[in-house]
Design a protein that fits this description.
By secondary structure, this protein is α/β, with parallel strands linked by helices. 27% of the residues lie in helices and 25% in strands.
């Protein structure tokens, strides 16, 4: 795993073998951030990274200058890894919250410009995430929600769906 652009470009991040997360592939992450470069000003974003896993997406936003990133990860092992890498790189823009994502969403009062979620593909409630986030009002006006999901799930008919991109086995649905 590596950081693909920005201040920490090329920096390799090697998660320990006991991490159970499925990190977004470097290929898909690079393609996603190329799309985002044409849509957002990274330095102005408030970001929510749900199911943060290895922290790869949060680190990418931090590397590109985002100064307000909330990363939510339930696993103690994975949260400790994100904390360690953030400390090693002296990144203070990532606010790590070790919590269940669904409990966090229910109690969160903040609003974000961009929300990224990479839940476990087998998560039974994966398809409910867009509605849950919009019902809770976590996106700011003109905000963007990006959901990484398996190919068997299709959000094209969702009222807030705007675009689908796939990179190999990685699928991203964009919602506004």
């Amino acid at each position: 795993m590596r950081i693909v652009s920005g201040k920490y470009k090329g920096r390799r991040i090697d998660p320990p073998s006991n991490i159970t997360a499925r990190p977004t592939t470097d290929f898909a992450k690079e393609a996603l951030f190329n799309v985002l470069t044409n849509r957002v000003d990274f330095e102005e974003l408030t970001v929510l990274d749900l199911f943060a896993g290895t922290g790869s997406i949060s680190l990418e936003f931090a590397s590109r200058g985002s100064t307000s990133i909330t990363a939510v990860e339930m696993s103690k092992t994975q949260a400790n890894f994100i904390r360690k890498i953030s400390n090693d790189l002296q990144i203070d823009s990532i606010n790590l919250v070790q919590a269940d994502v669904f409990r966090f969403i229910k109690s969160c009062t903040a609003k974000f410009n961009l929300i990224f979620a990479d839940p476990p593909y087998q998560l039974p409630t994966l398809q409910t995430l867009p509605d849950l986030l919009f019902e809770k009002g976590l996106l700011k006006e003109q905000g963007l929600f990006i959901l990484e999901h398996p190919s068997k799930i299709n959000f094209d008919s969702h009222s807030r769906f705007v675009e689908h991109r796939n990179y190999g086995n990685v699928h991203f649905s964009f919602f506004e």
